[in-house]
Amino acid sequence: MHPGTFVSGLFLKPSHMKKIFPVVLITSIIISACAGHHKKILVYASSDIQVDNTQKNITVTDGTTHHEAELEFSGSDPVTLNIQSPSGKFTLEANGDGLFIANLKNDTVVGSYQHVGTTSNTVITQEELKHRLDSLQQLVVGQNASEANKNYFIPPGKIARISSVTNAKVFGPYTTIPSGFDAGSVPEIYKSYTNKEVREIISRLSAMQK
Prior knowledge:
Distance between the termini: 93 Å
Strand order of the largest sheet: 6-3-9-12
Mean pLDDT: 85
Shape: globular
Largest sheet: 4 strands, mixed
Radius of gyration: 24 Å
Helix content: 10-25%
Strand content: 25-35%
Number of strands: 14
Oligomer: single chain
């Protein structure tokens, strides 16, 4: 028997190896490159979210209860979501890798990066209170909202990338961050709200001002 080697179960003679190995190497590089691209899309709606097997065709109806769905895609190509909603049909497109929020609610969704676990101080000074109020009042109108600033303002029927970190943790509207949550278990933490929620928080904080 001629000396040779096995590649994927095939016995190859040395004369064939030079031809086969470059092809195997190129194929491995292509597969690795595709595997490195990842998108995660969080879908927010006010009703049950119906998603087909492709994860690209989504149906929502009228409702009053917050619902979420998490969709994941690999590959570098843009992902187009086909939406069927009470307001009609439309599409949303996610470009690039990272973490996205698709807002199918009737209210704007806003949010920001959370510095969880950086302080144990439970007393809010008047200066801190004013800073929080100013930040919330800017957020509710979308002022300075951008991925670079680690905050976001997503009107109904829109999609936005909130982070290039796909496995960041997002706590959605009407959800609090548990006091015992291990912030070190994820690379980034974000908190989402509806604009209605933010206005209610502003009202409560304003009542605390002296």
